[in-house]
Amino acid sequence: MPCLETYPYLLWASLMLLALVIVCFNSTGPHRRVTMISALATPPFTAFFGCIPGYWTPKRIVAWVVSPEDFIFAVAAGGLSWSLAGFLWRCRLTLAFQARTSAWRLAIVLLSAVPSLVAAMLLKVRPMTATLLPVGFVVALILGIRRDLWRLALAGMLGYALVHAAMLVAAFVITPGFAHAWIATDLWGPTVWRIPLDEIVWSAAFGAAWPLFVAYILDVRLMGGEPDSNASLTSATD
User: Alpha-carbon Rg of the chain, whole angstroms?
Assistant: First the structure.
């Protein structure tokens, strides 16, 4: 497919989207519903996926701030990360979603992350380091509220990082030049199977953070239990 060979980022995003479609067809019940919500919730955060200044310069179909490839990749990553994180509990998931509570939770997380985001922008560190600071803050914040979700974060971190890397290696095999899209002077240095260490760490961090974010906002319960006593911020706003 000449088009995908010419635009390797589109190829990679398409492989990720194909994996998400396969996962959705083989999921059922709450696991499938949350996977789809997780995927469709990513558009407002699309710039976070492909537009890290000074990090990489992949060839895009159109040179917009957010390209179609960014959108496709974001949707695929959002759905896959949740699906892989929640796989072990796919038959025991429950949702206690309430619109008002979810709105409060969303506001709490986003507003609380602003200081870390501003600090990351002001610090003179490498692009990926600055990107990971607010991600780490969100993980710590949500785990502080919902300690029971640590297994979800661990499963997402390991599962998504492996799939992310496998799809990227496949793209490298088809279009070897894609490996040069990353700006070497702004990376941490080491690579694994030609994948920059920065990219591996980002995928692991995202695999932990996004499922946590979705589970907290939607009030997902891994074992179908009642909301635990650690959700103090939520109860204070209900």
Answer: 18
Q: How far apart are CA 41 and CA 35, in angstroms?
A: 10
φ/ψ of 96, rounded to 5, equals -115, 40
Q: Is 97 left (phi over 0), alpha (psi -120 to 50) or beta?
A: beta
What does 140-181 look like in DSSP terms, one character per residue?
HHHHHH-GGGHHHHHHHHHHHHHHHHHHHHHHHHH-GGGGGG
Quick check: 79 and 38 in contact, CB under 8 A?
yes
Query: Closest Cα to residue 88, out of 222, 207, 216?
Result: 222
Read off the pLDDT of residues 61-98 as tens digits, 9 standing for 90 and up. 887 778 889 899 999 999 999 999 999 998 888 888 88
Distance CA 128, CA 189 (A): 12
pLDDT, position 226: 43
**Residues 8, 172: Cα–Cα separation, whole Å:** 8
Quote the pTM value: 0.86
16 near 165, Cβ under 8 Å? no
